[in-house]
Write a structure and sequence with these properties.
By secondary structure, the chain is mainly α. The chain has 3 helices and no strands. It has one domain (about 10-35, about 40-90). It has helices spanning about 10-30, 50-70, 75-90.
Length: about 90
C-alpha cells in the first residue's frame, strides 16, 4: 500500500492510537460501571461517552487550527489536546 500521500507523522500516529485506546478503555469501563447523566461545565447533562466525544472533537479542531496557524511541532498540540480532553472528561 502506498500511504506516502497521507503524510503520517509520529505525533499523528500517537494521536490516533490514543483515540483507539480511549475508545477501548471507555467501552470496558461502561460495561463494568454504567454511566449516569450529570451536569458539569457543559450546559447540558452528559454521560462519559458524551464528554469523550466533545473532548475528541475539540482536540481534532485544536490540531487543525494548530496546523493552519502555527509553524510549531505537533507534539505541543498533542500535549494541549490531552490537557483539553482530560479537563472536559473531568469537569465537563
Amino acid at each position: 500500500m502506498d500511504l506516502e500521500w497521507m503524510a503520517w507523522t509520529l505525533p499523528t500516529a500517537v494521536f490516533f492510537l490514543g483515540i483507539a485506546a480511549l475508545l477501548l478503555g471507555m467501552t470496558f469501563w461502561q460495561h463494568l460501571s454504567p454511566t449516569r447523566l450529570r451536569r458539569g461545565l457543559l450546559p447540558i447533562p452528559t454521560t462519559r461517552g458524551d464528554r469523550l466525544f466533545v473532548g475528541l472533537l475539540a482536540s481534532a479542531f485544536l490540531h487543525l487550527a494548530w496546523l493552519a496557524l502555527t509553524p510549531f511541532s505537533l507534539w505541543i498540540a498533542l500535549g494541549l489536546s490531552v490537557l483539553l480532553l482530560v479537563s472536559v472528561l473531568r469537569l465537563g
